[in-house]
Specification:
There is one protein chain. The chain has helices spanning about 90-95, 105-115, 200-210, 225-230, and strands spanning about 5-10, 25-30, 35-40, 45-50, 50-55, 75-80, 100-105, 115-120, 125, 130-140, 155-160, 165-170, 185-190, 215, 235-240. Mean pLDDT is about 90; it is low at about 1-20. The chain is about 15% helix and about 30% strand.
Length: about 240
């Protein structure tokens, strides 16, 4: 894995409908370029790199606080994990897209939206020599909860950006496929029962994949600081941001 330097928090002058305090982090890649990650809400984030605007699960008015995407730069890449209302928002995508925007999604969202590129689990898309996107499994295993996110339907994503590896887990419980997720610099793990993980499960997954930085996300009213407490003796930088 390439050596990288993890930087501190910066502030962006982007109007997003939320307070930007402590919700934007910047990371240095191996070649010294910035990757800036801005927490918007719940499972929604913006990743900026070398002029690329990458939106993950953009949701505008369907969830509070409402996000006005007309105040953002147009997207170069949009990733949608699955079709639930807190992840897929047609109106937000329509506002963000421009000619040439690449939209990656699962089959269910493609059917709803009508366009975009389907990535199935374990499928990889190379954007250019510096950016690669891999779709990885995300699903429920617990009996009675598998109806929420059945196996094989939804995506998590691993983005490799100039050597920096970012794992966005999507809506998932701990699953066997996570043992194959390696060399992760930044991980986003969902903590929201009964749909995703408990704090204890998220901490266990973090210990297994060993990211340098962990963002618990998609946490709603979960006492997410418990994740940091459970990992206090582990060399993982747990950062709590605005992903309620």
């Amino acid at each position: 894995m390439k050596k990288l330097i993890i930087g501190g928090i910066i502030m962006l002058g982007v109007m997003t409908g939320f307070s930007s305090e402590k919700n934007t982090d910047t990371f240095k890649t191996a070649s010294g370029k910035d990757v800036v990650i801005t927490a918007i809400k719940h499972a929604t984030m913006l990743i900026q790199y070398d002029g690329f605007e990458i939106h993950v699960d953009p949701v505008g008015k369907k969830m509070d606080p409402a996000t006005d995407y007309s105040k953002f730069k147009k997207a170069d890449i949009i990733l949608v994990t699955h079709e639930h209302f807190d992840h897929y928002d047609k109106d937000a995508i329509d506002v963000l897209k421009k000619e040439g925007t690449q939209i990656f999604l699962n089959k269910a969202v493609k059917k709803l939206y009508g366009s975009g590129t389907v990535l199935t689990n374990s499928e990889t898309k190379v954007i250019n020599k510096e950016i690669k996107i891999e779709a990885v499994p995300a699903y429920n295993m617990t009996k009675g909860r598998d109806k929420f996110h059945p196996k094989g339907r939804d995506n998590g994503y691993i983005l490799t950006i100039d050597g920096l590896r970012i794992y966005i887990a999507g809506d998932t419980e701990p699953i066997p496929e996570m043992k194959d997720i390696k060399d992760i610099d930044i991980a986003f793990l969902p903590v929201n029962q009964p749909y995703t993980m408990t704090p204890e499960q998220a901490a266990k997954v973090a210990k297994a994949i060993q990211p340098k930085v962990l963002f618990p996300y998609h946490y709603s009213d979960t006492p997410v600081k418990e994740v940091a407490e459970l990992l206090k003796d582990i060399k993982i930088d747990v950062r709590i941001r605005n992903y309620k």
